Amino acid sequence: MKNIKIAVACHKPSVLPDNPLLMPVQVGSALAANRMTGMMHDDDGENISVKNPYYCELTAQYWAWKNVEADYIGLCHYRRFLCFRDVDTPRNLRGQMEASAITPGNLARFGLEDDAEMRAVIEANDIVCGPLQDVRKLYTPRGNQPTALRHWTAHDRALIMTEDLEKMLTILSEVSPEVGAATREYLNGKYFLGFNCFVMRKELFQQMCAIEFSVLERLESQVDLTHYNQQLRRIYGFMGEIICSSYIYWIEKKKQHRVCHLPLVYFNDTDPIPTYHPVNQENAIAAFFDFSKEPPFLFAATLQSFLEHIDQEHYYDIVVALDQADTFVQSELKKMCAGLDNISLRFLNAKLWKSILSEQNHAVCGLLPYLPWILPEYQHILVFGPKILFAGSIALLWDEKRCSDAFVCAPCDILMQARINDIYRETEENYIIKQLQNPYEYFSTDSMLWNLQKMRESYQISQINEFCFNTLNQLRSDKEIVNILCQGHSEKIGQEYNVWYATDDYLKYQLPYAPCDDYFALLKAQKEPIVLVYQFDSPWFDFSNPVSNLFWRSVRKTVFYEQSLAFMMIRMMDVRNDDMDVLNRLFPRGKAMRSILSYLFPKGSRRHAFIKKALHFFHMR
What we know:
Elements: E1 4-10, E2 22-26, E3 40-41, H1 52-55, H2 58-67, E4 72-77, E5 80-82, E6 97-101, H3 104-109, H4 115-123, E7 127-129, E8 133-134, H5 148-153, H6 162-175, H7 177-187, E9 191-192, E10 198-201, H8 202-220, H9 235-254, E11 259-261, E12 264-269, E13 284-291, H10 299-307, E14 315-322, H11 327-336, E15 343-349, H12 350-358, H13 371-374, E16 380-384, E17 388-390, H14 395-401, E18 408-410, H15 414-421, H16 427-435, E19 447-451, H17 452-458, H18 461-464, H19 478-486, E20 490-492, H20 505-510, H21 516-525, E21 531-533, H22 538-541, H23 546-555, H24 561-576, H25 581-586, H26 592-600, H27 606-620
Parallel strand pairs: 1-2, 1-4, 2-3, 6-12, 7-11, 13-14, 13-16, 14-15, 18-20
Antiparallel strand pairs: 4-10, 5-12, 7-10, 8-9, 16-19, 17-21, 18-19
Helix pairs in contact: 6-7, 6-8, 7-9, 8-9, 10-23, 24-27
């Protein structure tokens, strides 16, 4: 059995396959603020770790060349791997198989933890590398190109400088005339081989490294990086990629060694999946906020109103699901809790979890039905939807209902019940009626106390997928799935935890259709609400209702006030007419409001940038 070592270049904590053939290496260790545990480091032994900003993953290759003893030595990246299994999946613009995240399902699908399967292919060959791709089908900033050389020069000033490539080719011909000639031939062909992913017999690996690093060392003395941007400074990583590709081309051309080309798989998300443990605090209240389908900065208003109604007798353990990993937003949200010693605020990567869940069910509406298994160590948790605000404390609900035997304690979904009673009932309500024994027990998932432990005892996560589609094969909403799962096991709580206001014509028309007792309970709750629920447009278009007043009063106390104003403007323009001329119609030039807007959002300011960012986000949705 041959000794095989494949260095996996890592520059940040990532999920990696559990495979004895793979050897994770932290690149740039000499410059890193923290040394990652459970892996090798490229600054041990003879190394060029300090050159990582310029050499990229090649610092791991150099380290392996100088410090690793094995029969086969290879290189791949923390998000890009050779795939030893034939998988039918679409290719991205770079011709690589693309997967959303490194998850257990994807690891199994691409065989990245099957060391026996990998070993059989490696030991049967002298070189295993990425695929030969028709360069004419590959993207460049200047369109498709006919040759590999034109492909690279089409990236002039984007990835490399063409004059640097010419310098490298000249040096390569001096260091190794044979490889230099093969390189010219390879570059003038129509096939492209790249990305520095390979496994080679030791003697071939050593020969390639001797040539490659000799060329790059000499190239360093001829290139001035003073005015290069961050991308162009990665010059030696890209030049090394060309040398590696050319070397493999040369070896293959001689027909003295066995070379196997395999596809590459690229993972968009490699972040570790964190485990959430309940905080170990007396009188702790666990709360989950689902903002996985909304702009993350809009959580600021919800959080601010929540913080204004916490008490000192409880500790608040908050987990927020966000779809976008916006570090600035997360940092600012955490600052809002600074100075409060009875609150913990953590964020859950909704995008990553959707990827994990979609492996079992190719269409996942949202996270909520899977929450008992996403937070497996929690027994009870308060769940809140994205479009809510707080006008009172939720501590009483937690204290009174946490010991309930019900799967869920929640107020009735009065809007849904009104729609069920509507004479113009839509198809959606008809299907809900058919699925529930008593549709008038349909509860709101915008504010509820959920017994996660009872759900885990009653269902398996695989069973949840069976409820994702209705009889017409239409994807159900989160709230519908949870209602189906918990029917007959829910306990009704006061309507003050789910207060709607007639903020638009639709609600004015719809709400009175609700059953009388519930409608009158709503009118009473409107006078002393605890949890307010709103339609998406409510804060933006109607400023004369309690929801809008509370929203803007709350968000004004945060750093996201300007961003919310910008989002409002874009929302108003998009809803009324997706055309920039609407700005002139809503706020005519020369009028007072236009002057105020120009004052609030001057060009070049942070506020003006917020408008542009909000516009970009909204149109991406």
